[in-house]
Amino acid sequence: MGVHQPRPIGEGTLARVARILAARDIDPAAVPADVSREPNPALAAAETRIPRRYRHAVGDHPQVASWVRTVVAEAVPPSRGARRQAATGPSLLLAGTTGTGKTHQAYGAIRALTAAGIGVRWRATTEADLYAALRPRPGSDSERELMALARCPVLLLDDLGAAKSSEWTEELIYRLINKRYNDMLPTLVTTNLAIRDLRGALGDRVASRLAEMTERLVLTGADRRRAPVAA
Ligand SMILES: Nc1ncnc2c1ncn2[C@@H]1O[C@H](COP(=O)(O)OP(=O)(O)OP(=O)(O)O)[C@@H](O)[C@H]1O
Ligand SMILES: [Mg+2]
């Protein structure tokens, strides 16, 4: 399989995680894919920044849990003796039609990472909010904000492909994705676009980088927001 092919999480990734964990003397069973109910100050702090609707989301999809384990396994201490911090790792592209649980799984992944005992600096934005925040205006330093998102160890870029695009937005997304691609920073991307439409909507340079850097997961099913209520 070429490096530019979409790479669903499979046996290869699971074996890689097992190898990394074994090399670090970590018992895979001790790395939570899920979040326990024990009080956890790091998780509680993260939850204050998670939108209320997703504050208790659980990233229970097996590929999401596997991604969390990989990022935890690849965490490194920034200096000798320091606590391990999320550093590099694969990215995850969550695709699917509206209401299938992409944002839920993404925040669930962030909760699981913060609950896993490693340090996690994370940021989250939708593509549309990103453009609103970066629109040049007096007194704001958009370049600095863009770099803060580009360098943040873990980024959730929600709803990619839903915002109206222009040359300016294409350049911004390219710079954001390219920086994270170059530095191999774990990025959670959600999109309503079908995988085959990514290139047309985002341009070849962004789609090519996403193809290499992300593991892909397509959520299916009905719109959970409209699910019939049981009588
Ligand atoms: N696994 C789950 N368990 C319980 N509730 C869920 C689950 N997944 C999603 N939900 C709920 O379903 C609704 C829709 O989920 P979510 O917002 O994640 O969808 P989405 O795929 O991001 O949709 P959109 O493409 O419109 O942004 C939300 O109320 C969310 O809390
Ligand atoms: Mg969403």
TrEMBL record:
Residues 88-212 form the AAA+ ATPase domain. Coiled coil: none annotated. PANTHER family: ATP-BINDING PROTEIN RV3427C IN INSERTION SEQUENCE-RELATED, CHROMOSOMAL REPLICATION INITIATOR PROTEIN DNAA. It comes from the Bacteria. One of its GO terms (molecular function) is ATP binding. Keywords: ATP-binding, Nucleotide-binding. The keyword Mitochondrion does not apply. Pfam families: IstB_IS21. This is ATP-binding protein.
